[in-house]
Amino acid sequence: MSVVYLSGGVGGARLLDGVVRALPPRRVTAVVNVGDDFDHLGLRVCPDLDTVLYTLGGLGDAARGWGLAGETFRALEMVKRYGGSDWFALGDGDLGTHLTRTQWLAEGLTLTEVMARFADALDVAARVLPMSDDRLRTRIETDQNGVLDFQDWLVRRRAQPAVRAVRLEGDPRPTPQVLAALEDAEVVLIGPSNPYVSIDPILSLPGVRERLERARVIAVSPIVGGRAVKGPLAEMIPRLAGRPASAAAVAAHYGGLLDGFVVERGDEGELPDGLEVRASATVMRTPRDRVQLAREALELAGVAT
Ligand code: FO1
To answer: Which residues line ligand 1 (CB under 6 A)?
Structure first.
């Protein structure tokens, strides 16, 4: 029985790592957000895909959650000396990924083919699928600064400009591989990712929601006690949902799509009726935490580990 896992951001990749450690990796297919992707310094940068790739490949910087462990930034220092764009921290090793990806895309490979080669080269046994081979541009409509590209808002401006709306620009189609994986999936896990900017891009693809409605869908809450473990979600919920940040607000956002929801102990309040809820310890500090939380989510999903 195959498990499909929808991922974006650092939290999503961390739990995916637990799922891949808890199951035979070949039974796991990650469908990853590409809305964060952008062209920077002439290179195609795919943060959510690379965070999954490095995390599953055991190469990621565990504390930061993104980029490579033991990274150096000599190239970025030269960019800075020239007055170039140094606000997005591209490490020397990470540049190897962007250079190779940009070259292969220019040769006509799809992003799906590029990521399959990367996963193979890094001995990542789980399938890592971009949600789409088409471009999608997540942009943030703000109160004071107009409409900003995602990384400009998140990284350059440290997510300070208040969010009025999230815009998904483009008309991406799911890849055939994604649709086939969803067809075969009896269980779909939604990681503890930002629903608005990491998961909604995937759910907005034509044909995805219909396929999810036929599967058993279990999400893990990205909000713990009203706060986000990482990132701007807790500030986005009041702006976008008009209610305080909570696990219940996340469940309400996903609506009837969810069959089950894993939340932090104490966050069980106000959850929709009919939703199967499991309270657990959802903050992952160690690899063991990741596997433990993955096991809880898989058990709620009805998948033996
Ligand atoms: N996040 C930051 O907060 N600052 C950075 O300088 C930064 C660089 C970076 C480089 C490569 C990469 O794959 C991710 C990077 N991230 C950085 C994280 C990234 O902006 C976010 O993790 C995702 O876009 C959120 O889903």
So the answer is: 8-10, 36, 47-48, 50-51, 66-67, 88-90, 94, 151, 154-155, 198
Of ligand 1's listed atoms, the one at least distance from the Cα of 193 is 26
Q: What pLDDT score was predicted for residue 305?
A: 87
Q: What is the DSSP string of 70-92?
A: T---HHHHHHHHTT---SS---H
- Which residue's CA is the nearest one to ligand 1's atom 26? 9
Inside any domain, residue 190: yes
Mean pLDDT, range 123-151, rounded to an integer = 98
Query: Is 155 a member of any domain?
Result: no
Q: Which two tokens stand for residue 181?
A: 């994986």
Pairing of strands 223-224, 38-40: unpaired
Provide CB contacts within 8 A for 229, sequence distance 6+. 11, 192, 222, 282, 283
Rounded mean pLDDT of 220-246?
97
> Average pLDDT of 64-74?
97
The number of folded domains in the chain is 1
For residue 10, the ligand 1 atom closest to its alpha carbon is 22
> Domain holding 295: CATH number?
3.40.50.10680
Please give the mean pLDDT across all residues of the chain: 97
- Distance of alpha carbon 133 from alpha carbon 150, whole angstroms: 19
CA dihedral angle for residue 104, residue 108, residue 111, residue 116, rounded to 10 degrees: -70
Residue 296 falls within a domain, yes or no?
yes
Place of tokens 């940009």: 102
The residue range of the domain holding 179 is 3-42+125-137+170-301
- Would 179 be classed as within a structural domain? yes
